Amino acid sequence: DRYQLWGGCFEEEPSSVLRRLNDSLPIDSRLYREDIQGSKAWAEELYQSGHLSTIDNEAIQQGLDKVERQIEEDLSNKGRLNDFEEDIHSVVERRLREHAGEAALRLHTARSRNDQSATNTKLWMLTSFQRAQNEIIRLISVILNRAEQEIDIIFPGYTHLQRAQPIRWSHYLMSYVWSFRDDVIRLEEQRNRLSSCPLGSGAIAGCALPIDRRRLAKSLGFQNVTPNSMFAVGSRDHIVEFLNWASLCGTHLSRLAEDLIIYSSQEFGFIQHSDQYSTGSSLMPQKRNPDGLELIRGAAGHLQGDAFSFSCILKGLPSTYNKDLQSDKEILFRSYDRLLDCLKVAVGNVATMKVDADKAGKLLSAGMLATDLAHELVRRGVPFRRAHHLVGAALRRAAELHCDLQHLPHHEYLAICPEFGAEEELRKIFSWESSVEQYTSEGGTSRNSVLSQIREVKQWLQNY
Ligand code: ARG
To answer: Which Gene3D superfamilies match (predicted)?
Structure first.
């Protein structure tokens, strides 16, 4: 028989199709720990403020512990709960009745599933934020390690995916480290807003029995209490924030994935992804496909969609609780699981891929030093705009002669402009190493600038 928390004034059962649409147990059973934790704290608060007897409180506390163990067992044996009830709140109360008898009927005093469910979700988010954060920290560490070890590698930097300037590979890697570092900080900024306890808000109006909401919130590990009962049961802004955060973090992962996919194509070919993170083709024996990264790129689309779809659900809702809100957990869990898998795949993929420094270096071409050549003219007093055009003329002349800037004869340079100067000096420009070493200002691609980025992030990492 189905234990229902409501229905006293109903004459008929809900239709089976409404039940199917309404039942949330397969999803919210994931919150059984939080539900029980919240109920234990609630009973304790009812007891502390004189609304529950010692005996009943004890029966409830011990009963809830038993329910928790029982559910844990069921989940580990069967992988899901086979209870008939509509949601986890009803399951816990029915099971509690079996252990605590009549005392169980007092647990829901002055409480609503509206404040209960909002509290459960926030409790879950507080612990899950920690896990997500740990995973990003791992990713940052893995990228940082490579950046440290591969500081000597110089490869082409691209803008518009056209060869731009020589770049230290580590500088490129660090550009993602900074994005992920910001993701960690953004997540932390959400935690304060998240950490306010809705319990004691009832269905809409608050709690009619005098209780100490602050003591209750503290006992659950919250920093604060929600300041308005209607806000408490109706707002899902913390979930919107999280979903949009996950979507942005997914976007960072996706761009990294896209780069690494391109760099492992045969046309670039300086990265090889490990067997662990690649798959083959059923037809073409030579294929090694970067599926892990492609799945990350696809997942970023799902994350954006989830963030958007949840905002769509909220935007037309009248204030406080409406059943539309029930899907908050489905979307939250889905996005969270997806993001965590993506982070783990990214960690594994980046940690195990091989970077071929020689191949990376061979992708460089003399044309990528055109900017350096212009800067050399600037050092000799030529205004930059003029220098830009003069180097342009050298490029045009080199194309006519079917050579590159490095092999353009010296007299051709002098014919364009005498400031190109002595041949020996001019030839010195054509070095990848001295090219990147010019960029010594903060945030540049010189060795020291990159090393100081690495140091800064390492120091920041010590807080975690
Ligand atoms: N399962 C619901 C949810 O998670 C719990 C709140 C239901 N409240 C209600 N009055 N029907 O949103």
So the answer is: Fumarase/aspartase (C-terminal domain), Fumarase/aspartase (Central domain), Fumarase/aspartase (N-terminal domain)
